[in-house]
Specification:
It is a single chain. The protein is built from three helices and six strands; from the N terminus they run αααββββββ. By secondary structure, the protein is α+β, with helices and mostly antiparallel strands. The protein has two domains: 71 residues, no CATH class; 52 residues, no CATH class. The strands form two sheets. A four-stranded antiparallel sheet has the order 1-4-5-6, with no helix packed on it. The chain has a two-stranded antiparallel ribbon with strand order 2-3. A hairpin with a 2-residue loop joins strand 4 and strand 5. Helix 1 packs parallel to helix 2.
Length: 175
């Protein structure tokens, strides 16, 4: 692709990559509509990641503290911001009174069971789940009061439980 690497100079490619990454991050943080961001934050590109980040940080500071918004009755966001009166205390420690084991999900979304790895989900990273044996070699994984699925200790593949909202077959009446 002509022009993509600007003559093959890896330094120019790296700066472009850093710019694109930071641009997408700042647009997400500010809930910007897709569109141009101020030229002074991007042109010319900074020499390294930290200098480019400092330019974006300055822009965010100006955007939040100095630029009034029509939607906010010509006030800046920082003039109206009030911290919550309720401090966030995090989730309480999860207690699983009935499972055979309580294990913590790894950062990659796995649980380790008898030296085997069972893929769960990164959504549960750092959370404690309960494991309970339901049958010979069959185990149930639960999070809080929700059953996440079953696995057997041979394949260690998590299978979802039956859908509680799915269609149910009712017995035929004797009439």
């Amino acid at each position: 692709m002509p022009g993509r690497f600007n003559g093959g100079h890896s330094e120019d490619w790296r700066k472009g990559f850093i710019f694109r990454q930071l641009r997408s991050n700042i647009l997400i943080l500010l809930n910007f509509p897709k569109g141009p961001i101020p030229v002074e934050t991007t042109k010319p590109a900074a020499d390294d990641f930290l200098q480019q980040q400092a330019r974006f940080d300055d822009f965010v500071d100006c955007y939040s503290n100095e630029r009034p918004r029509q939607a906010l009755d010509m006030q800046c966001p920082t003039q109206l911001y009030r911290p919550s009166s309720k401090p966030y205390r995090g989730q309480p420690n999860l207690d699983y009174p009935f499972p055979d084991k309580a294990v913590t999900v790894t950062t990659c979304g796995r649980i380790c069971f008898n030296r085997r790895k069972i893929n769960l989900s990164q959504v549960f990273a750092g959370q404690t789940v309960g494991i309970k044996q339901t049958d010979d070699r069959i185990w149930l994984v639960s999070f809080m009061s929700y059953d996440l699925g079953y696995f057997d200790d041979e394949t260690c593949r998590l299978e979802p439980p039956a859908d509680p909202f799915g269609p149910k077959v009712l017995p035929m009446s004797s009439e």
